TrEMBL record:
Residue ranges crossing the lipid bilayer per the database entry: none
Name of the molecule in the record: EF-hand domain-containing protein
Organism, scientific name: Magallana gigas (Pacific oyster)
Alphabetized GO MF terms: calcium ion binding
Signal peptide per UniProt: none
Keywords: Calcium
Length: 82
């Protein structure tokens, strides 16, 4: 029921090819409860932010828009081209 920072950063680096610092930053952004562990409570809050049309489903486009918003590159543009 818990994803640790180590587990998250390892998988995030594999999936998105970010450096360790950026991956830790993303973990801390997601960890709303600041307990060092990602749980349903943390992710539920982000799900609501991603689901912009309030249909209780996050589409690929909604996820990509959210990701670009919370994880911009150094120029302020979306980091991931997905």
């Amino acid at each position: 029921g818990c994803v640790t920072m180590h587990e998250f950063t390892h998988q995030w680096n594999l999936d998105y090819h970010d450096d360790h610092h950026a991956s830790e930053g993303m973990f801390h952004h997601l960890d709303i409860t600041t307990d060092g562990c990602l749980k349903k409570d943390d992710l539920g809050m982000h799900h609501m932010a991603m689901d912009t049309d309030n249909d209780n489903t996050v589409t690929g486009a909604e996820f990509t828009a959210w990701l670009h918003h919370v994880h911009p590159d150094s120029a302020g543009h979306g980091h991931h081209g997905r």
